[in-house]
Amino acid sequence: KAGVTQTPRYLIKTRGQQVTLSCSPISGHRSVSWYQQTPGQGLQFLFEYFSETQRNKGNFPGRFSGRQFSNSRSEMNVSTLELGDSALYLCASSLEAGGGEQFFGPGTRLTVL
Amino acid sequence: QKEVEQNSGPLSVPEGAIASLNCTYSDRGSQSFFWYRQYSGKSPELIMSIYSNGDKEDGRFTAQLNKASQYVSLLIRDSQPSDSATYLCAAIRGPGRRALTFGSGTRLQVQP
Predict the structure, then answer these.
(1) What are the tens digits of pLDDT across the range A70-83?
(2) Which of B47, B67, B70 is nearest to B57 (CA)?
């Protein structure tokens, strides 16, 4: 089975721009969670989607949004980028909503200049 | 207080020794616990899950859970240099109930 894939792997943007990241889960997995990882804050939960519905949301501003498509692929969008948004964005898929056994993609490294 | 707490380390052990990684959690409603390993520059990978009090063994890894003390640990026997990584402890209340919460991780260094 193919693993979780994320595109793009690297992004460089400037402040004020917006960005869209994509995640394709493992075949058969219907839950996709997104995390932000920084050296200072560690792995922080952004949101989870299951069957095209947002099931959980972390403590991030409204500039961070996401969606899930009928084929379980998910996208997250960050608008009006700030320097502090520079991070590794990870997506993880699991079989069930809120599942703890999650399988992570390689991540997208976002740099905001 | 963070919901899941880990000592950041580094924890340094010689090759062949037992590495003991510890984690405490504050949410008494947490039911399931997980250990993820993250190599530098890579994404986390699941190595162990534990759902009930006691020990769970898988190869060189043993996870231990004590819900009364709100304590989870991971033992790595016969540590190898390839085990050098950051180990993340995570907890969840239950499927569909809140999100998986991660600790900040403990960096393990296995000295050859």
Answers:
(1) 999 999 999 999 99
(2) B47
